[in-house]
Amino acid sequence: MRRLLDVSLETKINGILIGVITLIIVSLSAFYLYHSSNEYYDNARRLTLQSAKTISFLPALIDGEDLSDNEKIQTLTNQYIFENDIDFVIVKNREGTILSHPDPSMIGEHEPYDEDARANIFGAYYTEKTDKYIEPSIMAMAPIYAGDEVRQLSGVVKVGYFESKIIEKIMDKLYQLSFMILTFIILSFFISRWFGKYIKSETLGYEPKEITMILKNRENIFSALDEGIMATDLSGKIIYVNEAAQKYLGIPGTADLDGCNIHEYFGSDIEKVLENSEDKPGLSYFETHLNDKEIVVIVNDLYEKEELSGHVLILRDMTEMSELSNKLTIVESLFDDLRAQSHEYKNRLHLISGLLEMEKYHGIRGVLNDEINNLDSHQNNLYGIEEDRIKALLIAKMNTANERRVELNIDDESQMDSISDKATINALITIISNLIDNAIEAVAEVSEPEISFYIGYFDGWLEVVVEDNGSGISDEDKVFEKGYSTKNGGINRGYGLYNVTVNVELLGGYIDIKSREGKTVFTVEIPLLQGGEMDDENPYS
To answer: Which compartment or compartments is the protein found in (predicted)?
Structure first.
């Protein structure tokens, strides 16, 4: 079987076309033949039934006296057979005596009167198939009503049409169709030969196996890459996309992107890059977010005969690197907080040590009482926060603020339930840590720096509010952009609030900022219900 299929593309096309055309022609011919044969049988039924009715109304039969004249009836039926396309007529009276028959020796013989009960007893007109007389036939029955004044059921007429004549007509039709089928098959052979050569020229002479191998090798190479690969024409229509790119775009692997426009997925970012590529050809890139992933898109130009014909886009996932950077930033922040806390307690220990040497025991008691009161105050303010990781973060931030001589006040009405999802709690830690760090930086130049922090539930959602009395923000629209900073210097500046925005969007929430001279308020709303579950009916998702 494999050897039969291991033929050239042209041969396969010839075989398929000839086979399909032959199948269609044979199917149509079979349907036509079936329809014609049914029509022949229907015509035979109509002819025999009409003949039976006509004979049953002949004067020789409806006259009660002539019904006993067998010779006269036989003559009439033979004459009717001669003049019409029927094969035999049988006439019987109601008692079953045969009055006319194609075999003269049967005249006068007796058949059971109830053999043709539907016509002989109930007066019905009908047709049926039978092989009782001479050969298989289509036979019609009609009742005879005889009498001078009052006509009564007195016999039955049977008219037959040989089935062999119908089969002969069907065979004649079949011979005609066979000639037509053969003609079309020969014609389809020449058409398929021409079409096969045309297809061969369109595939540049490659066989399907060779084309498949080329495409598979290309697809395997692109699929092995972690980077997404996309190709577009000059208008931005997608002409190729690999599996990694579909994954980044959140599109099922079975989806057909041919003909879709690249602007549907990258919007204004890609428009600016493509516009600039016309004036400044070469590599260019931009950063974007796709399905909660931070993606760097590198755009290169495609040339055909030294003319710009399209673009190639390489998509690289920077999410993991960004997450590692965020985690490192948080770890560094917590390390600084712990260092500040250690330094603060070291100062307390030095103070207690000095008071011990001076035997100022009342002073020691005062220092300890102040520290205990400070801890109690912190614990009371954090009493409503059940999430231990957030509570530990806030304690560390209070120690950092205290070392920098910044007053960080935790609202005593703050509350928060425990959260089981690690991704959610990590995002919240990033949001809160960066907002407080940003506030501490903002009040660095203020004579009496003060920061207020609140976390709780508002309208069922988790709300985080950070307020400071710094100098304010002049450009509220740009403060969340990556790399933007209100502070001077440093390559690491301008990423804290950007990370806040990224994680707020990741959780499906929103952030609001209100700023004026001497007061800045950051408000974050997260679709996190009491009990630690996310709100599935989030209108911002």
So the answer is: Cell membrane
Q: What is the spatial distance between Cα 479 and Cα 289, in angstroms, rounded to a whole number?
A: 18
Last residue of a domain, one of 111, 134, 168: 168
131: its two tokens: 């092989």
Question: Looking at residue 285, which CATH number applies to its domain?
Answer: 3.30.450.20
Q: Are 458 and 525 in contact (CB under 8 A)?
A: yes
pTM exceeds 0.85 for this model: no
Helix (H) or strand (E) holding 288: strand 284-290
If 0-12 CB within 10 Å is exposed, 13-18 middle and 19+ buried, where does residue 300 land?
middle
* Together in a domain, 255 and 163: no
Per DSSP, helices labelled H in 156-203 are 163-202
Half-sphere exposure in the Cβ direction for 48 (13 Å, CA): 26
- 164 and 220, same domain (yes or no): no
Distance CA 407, CA 76 (A): 132
239 and 298 assigned to the same domain = yes
Note whether 268 and 384 are same-domain residues. no
Q: What is the mean pLDDT of residues 125-132?
A: 85
Q: Which residues contact 196 (CB under 8 A, 6 or more apart)?
A: 9, 10, 11, 13, 14, 17
Domain that includes residue 288, residue range: 212-317
Residue with more model confidence, 398 or 273: 398
Give the tokens for residue 163: 């089935």
**403 and 494 part of one domain:** yes
Residue among 463, 468, 478, 469 nearest 523 (CA): 463
Highest mean pLDDT among 375-379, 418-422, 432-436: 432-436
Quote the CA–CA distance of 219 and 229 in Å, as a whole number. 11
The strand ranges marked E within 46-189 are: 88-93, 98-100, 126-130, 137-146, 152-162
Q: How high is the pLDDT of residue 467?
A: 93
Tokens matching residue 17: 């076309």
Q: Does the residue 534 lie in any domain?
A: no
> Per the structure, how many domains does the chain have?
3
CA proximity to 64, closest of 143, 147, 2: 147
Q: What is the dihedral of CA 334, 335, 337, 341, to 10 degrees?
A: 140
Lowest model confidence (mean pLDDT) among 33-47, 228-242, 468-482 = 468-482
Please determine, for residue 482, whether its predicted confidence score (pLDDT) is greater than 70: no
b/e 357-391 (16+ beta carbons within 10 angstroms → b):
eeeeeeebeeeeeeeeeeeeebeebbebbebeebb
Q: Are strands 152-162 and 88-93 parallel, antiparallel or unpaired?
A: antiparallel
Residues 395 and 477 in one domain: yes
Cβ burial of 304 (10 Å; 0-12, 13-18, 19+) is: exposed
Q: Determine the Cα–Cα distance for residues 325 and 492; give it in Å rounded to an integer.
A: 11
293 shares a domain with 221: yes
Handedness of CA 390, 392, 398, 400 (dihedral sign): negative
d(CA 537, CA 541): 8
Residues 216, 146, single domain; the answer is no
C-alpha R_g of the chain: 50
pLDDT band at 314 (very low <50, low <70, confident <90, very high): confident
